[in-house]
């Protein structure tokens, strides 16, 4: 899997791109960057939100394979500086690289090996604003492997409202509303 080109499906990328505009997302954590395909969609939307509404923001990408990280940077360079300017790629194990300086998170994309998804969510959750969205890929196709994550998200007092969107193999959309009662 070290050099496999596994990107978020195009229709799912279109959805997260649209979702960034709906939520005005400016600060996003992408757990699992690989060659940086989904990052491009997120960065385009974040750059546009910043240009429209002002303020600052970034897409925090994460990748521990140096070859993938280097190629991702080359792709982003090809896209132009408006993309690269809003991407901060953190290289190394994301359970370490996401321990600091997250700011206030509007969105978390969990496109990572399933056993890492819940630990990453728990790491990022304290930085998530109310109304932040967590998108998790493949939650129907790999529901057994996501059992701990889905159990956590769907617990009655989790603070998350969850919906499985009918994309191929499922795409979980979870909205973080820690202070809202049912
Ligand atoms: C499914 S791919 C991400 C695809 C990407 N979101 C896209 O759409 O182009 C998951 C990536 O997570 C990376 N990864 C796995 N474990 C990691 C870890 N502990 N820290 C950082 N990255 C990791 C893998 O190397 C892989 O490239």
SSE diagram, text form:
Layout: H1 10-23, E1 27-31, H2 37-53, E2 58-63, H3 66-79, H4 81-84, E3 87-91, H5 94-97, E4 105-110, H6 114-124, E5 128-137, H7 147-154, E6 160-165, E7 171-176
Parallel strand pairs: 1-2, 1-4, 2-3, 4-5
Antiparallel strand pairs: 5-7, 6-7
Helix pairs in contact: 1-2
The structure holds S-adenosylmethionine.
Residues 6-8, 32-38, 62-65, 68, 93-94, 111-113, 116 line the site of S-adenosylmethionine.
Descriptive terms for the model:
O-methyltransferase activity; Rossmann fold; methyltransferase; 7 helices; alpha/beta; 24% strand; 40% helix; 182 residues; transferase; binds S-adenosylmethionine; O-methyltransferase; single chain
Kindly describe this structure.
By secondary structure, this protein is an alpha/beta fold. The protein has a single domain (10-176), classed as Rossmann fold, CATH 3.40.50.150. It contains seven helices and seven strands. The chain has helices spanning 10-23, 37-53, 66-79, 81-84, 94-97, 114-124, 147-154; strands at residues 27-31, 58-63, 87-91, 105-110, 128-137, 160-165, 171-176. The protein has a seven-stranded mixed beta sheet with strand order 3-2-1-4-5-7-6, sandwiched between helices. Strand 6 (160-165) and strand 7 (171-176) form a beta hairpin. The protein is globular, with a radius of gyration of 15 Å. S-adenosylmethionine is lined by residues 6-8, 32-38, 62-65, 68, 93-94, 111-113, 116. This is O-methyltransferase. Belongs to the class I-like SAM-binding methyltransferase superfamily. Cation-dependent O-methyltransferase family. Keywords: Methyltransferase, S-adenosyl-L-methionine, Transferase.
């Amino acid at each position: 899997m070290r050099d496999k080109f596994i990107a978020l499906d195009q229709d799912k990328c279109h959805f997260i791109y649209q979702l960034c505009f709906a939520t005005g997302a400016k600060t996003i954590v992408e757990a699992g960057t690989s060659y940086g395909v989904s990052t491009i969609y997120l960065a385009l939307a974040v750059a546009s939100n910043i240009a429209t509404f002002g303020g600052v923001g970034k897409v925090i990408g994460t990748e521990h394979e140096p070859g993938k990280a280097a190629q991702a940077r080359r792709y982003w360079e090809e896209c132009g500086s408006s993309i690269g300017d809003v991407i901060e790629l953190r290289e190394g194990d994301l359970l370490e690289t996401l321990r600091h300086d997250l700011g206030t998170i509007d969105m978390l994309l969990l496109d990572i090996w399933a056993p890492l998804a819940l630990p990453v969510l728990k790491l990022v959750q304290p930085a998530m604003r109310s109304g932040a969205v967590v998108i998790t890929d493949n939650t129907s196709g790999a529901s057994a492997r996501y059992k701990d994550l889905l159990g956590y998200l769907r617990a009655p007092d989790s603070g998350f409202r969850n919906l499985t969107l009918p994309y191929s193999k499922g795409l979980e959309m979870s909205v973080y509303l820690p202070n809202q009662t049912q």
